[in-house]
Records
---
Amino acid sequence: MTEPNCDVVIIGAGAAGLYALHRVRGLGLSAKVFEKGDGVGGTWYWNRYPGARCDVESWDYCYTFSEELEQEWEWTERFPTQPELERYFNHVADRFDLRRDIEFDTRVEQARFDDDRNCWIVRTSKGATVAARFLISAAGCLSEVSTPRFKGANTFEGQQIHTARWPKGGMDVTGMRVGVIGTGSTGVQAIPQLAKLAAQLFVFQRTPQFAIPARNRPLDDDTLEKLKHNYRERWALKRESPTGMGRRRPKVSSALELDEATRTRLLENSWALGGPGFARTFDDVMTDAESNQLTAQFVRDKIKDKVEVPDVAESLLEIDHPLGARRLIVEIDYFETYNRPNVTLVDVAANPIEEITPQGLRTADGFSYDLDLIVYATGFDGMTGALLAMDIQGIGGLALRDKWANGAGAYLGLVASGFPNLFMITGPGSPAVYSNVIFSIEQHVDWITDCLAHMLDHDLDRIDSDPEAEAEWTRQVHEIAAQSIVGKTDSWWTGANIDGKPKGVTFYLGGTNTYAAICDQIAAQGYEGFVMR
Ligand code: N01
C-alpha cells in the first residue's frame, strides 16, 4: 500500500484557499492547491465585468489573521473594486510565499475516498493524480456560473459573455448595442458602466429588486490612519456581530415601537450612510413582516424619486418580495441610469425571452432587439454548484451528488457524513453567503486547522461526522430559516435559479457569532458529533 504523496490538497486559490494554505503550512503539513484560473483571488479573479466591486466595506472585507498585513495594506475606497481586491489577494499570495504550492490552470475533476488507504485520490484536468490524507474544498459559494440555455443561442452573430467570464484585458463596448440579461447584484453594478459607453443598452429584467445606494467614497489619509489604529477593536466587534461585520447591533429593536417621524428620521439617516447596513436600521427588519414592510416602503419611495419616467419607475418597483428576502443589492447610479436616452428597460417577466436570433433576441410578444453583445448577468449555482461540479465520491463510492440529491447539508457545514477527511470551507449548513464571507472563511479555516492540529497531537487519522448529528444540525438550519424573511421568495439563495435543484435555504441563519460559539464548544467537548479514529 503506497503512502499518500501529500498531506492536504486544497481546491481553489481564492480567499479561502490562500488562507487555508497558509495555516496548513503552519502545522508543518505539506499542501498542494489546485486552481482553475491562472491567478489567485477566486471571485475577484473571475468577476472582471465593468463596475465589479465588493458590497462589503473594504475595512471589513479583509483578513484579520496578520497584524503586519492589515497595517501595510492601504485600501483606497469604501467599497473596493475588483482590480483592487485582485491586487490585495496577489499581495497576500506574495507576502506569505504561497504561490510555490499552487498549481494554476488546473481543475479538480474527481476526488475519490480510498477507504483502505484512508486518503483522497484527487484527479485533475491535467490528468495528474494525487493521494492526500485530507482534502479541503475552498471552491467557493459563487463560482459555478449559471447561463440560461436559450433557444437559438448558438446562432447569434454578435458576442455573448457571462459577467463572471469577462476577458482579462477588458472589452470595449463603445458604440455597441448591448443587451444585459439579469438585474441581480451583478447586473445592477454592470448596467450603469455599460450604459456610459454603449450606443444602446437594453436591460432585460425579470425580477426587480430592492437596492440601496452605496455612497462609495475614497478613503483619505486621516480615515486610513484611524482604521489602522482601530482594526483590533473592529475585529472584536466582528466576532460579536451576527453577520461578521464590525458594526454594533441596531439600537432600535423594532420599527414598530417608534412614531412615524422618528422612524422616518432614522431611515433617512441610514439612507444617507448607504451600504448594506441599511437593512439593520431596526433589529427586526428581517424577522417582523410589518417592520420589514415599513422599511421597504421607504426604499420604494426613494427609488420612485430617482426615475423620471413613471412607467419605468413602476416596472422597477414591481418588487414581489420583502426587503432582504433576496440578497440586498448595493448600487451606484443604477436607477438614475434609466433616465439616460440610450437605455431601455424591457420587462421579461410579462414577455419572457423566447429565442436568441442571429441578430439579437426576441421576446414572447414578438418584439426583436438587435444587439452586438449579449451580457449574461445571470448569476451562479450557489452554495453547492462548485462542489457538485466535481465528481466527489465518499465511502463505498457514494457520490456527493447523490447524497445531496434531495437537499444539501453537512454537520456544521464542515464535514458531510460518509466523506471523511473532507472539510468544506463555507459549506452548506454554515453561515457562508449570509455573512461577511471573508470573516466566515477565516473562522472555518481556523477551526479546521485547529482540528487538524488536534488530530495530529492525538494520533488520529480520520474524521467523519455522525449521521445523526448531521441530520439534527440540518434540521436546525431549516428551522431557523423558516423563522426568517430570508429566502421567502425564489432566488439563488433557495436554489430556485437552477433547474432540478432541490429548493431551500442551506445556509445557517442563526448568526455568525452564535455559529462560531457552537463550533468552538463542539471542539472543546472533544468534537462532539464527529467520529474520529
Ligand atoms: O446573480 P443573481 P448575480 N431570463 O442570481 C436573471 C454576489 N455578488 O450574479 O431573479 C431572464 O442574483 C435573474 O432573474 P430572476 C451576491 O451574493 C456580489 O447578480 O431569476 N432573466 C436575476 O435578475 C449576489 O447575490 C457582488 O427572475 C434571468 C439575474 O439573472 C450573487 O453574487 C456583486 C434568466 C441573476 O441574479 C449573485 O448575484 C455581484 C432568464 N432565463 C454579485 N435567468 C458584490 O459584492 C436568470 N435571470 C457587489
---
Amino acid sequence: MKNKTVLIVEDEKDLVELLEFNLHREGYRTLAAYDGETGQQLARQHVPDLIILDLMLPRKNGQEVAMALRAEPTTKRIPMIMLTAKSEESDIVVGLTLGADDYVTKPFSMKVLIARMETVMRRASQEVRPSDVMTLGPLKVDRSRHRAEIDDQPVALTLTEFRILEALLAARGHVLSRDQLMSHAWGEHVSVTDRTIDVHVTALRKKLGGHRHIVETVRGVGYRIAGYNHE
Ligand code: CA
C-alpha cells in the first residue's frame, strides 16, 4: 500500500516511534499526534487514508476524537483502527460503536496491525466504488446497503454469505479460489478452512432457492457466478 498516509494518535512516544518505523518500512507515510485534540486537527487538515487511534489520550480521549471525526463530512469516511489497552469487551464494544472499523489490543504484533490496516483500507476503497448495485438476471445486490434481492424480494443473507456473493458477482463470471473468497469475506488476518467456506456457500445457495445454480462450483479451483458471457 504505497503512497498512503497514516495518522497515528498515541501518547506513548516509544510506541509512536515503533509504529512509524514499521509503517515507513512498509511504504506508508505517517503523521503523529500525542494527544486527542492535535490528532483531530491533523485529521481535518490532512484527511489521511487511515487513523490509528489510541483510546486513552490526554486532552481529548479516543472516544471523543472518533465521535467528532465521524460527525464531520470530510473525515467521517476515514478508516479508523482503535488501540485499546486491555482486551475488556466493554472497551472494544465502545470503540466499535463509536465508529472504529477495527481494534487492536495492546500489546499487539505489527504484522497483525498492518494486516488489519490493509483490510479496513481495502474495505473503505470498495465502499466508494461507483457500481454499488450489481445485477444479474433476477439477482440484485446493493453493496452500500448490504442488501440482496431476487425478483425484487429481499433475501436474508448473513454478512459472510453476502460478502461471498458480492465477491463472486464482482468477479463477473471469473473463478475465485477459496483463498480469494476467504480474504474478501473474512479479511486477510483471518484463516478459515476450505470446509468452512463450502458450508457458507451451501447456505448461500439454499437461500437463493430456485436460482441456486447461479453459484457454480469449479472443481479443484473454487467458485464462480454462472450467467456471464465472455467472448
Ligand atoms: Ca494512551
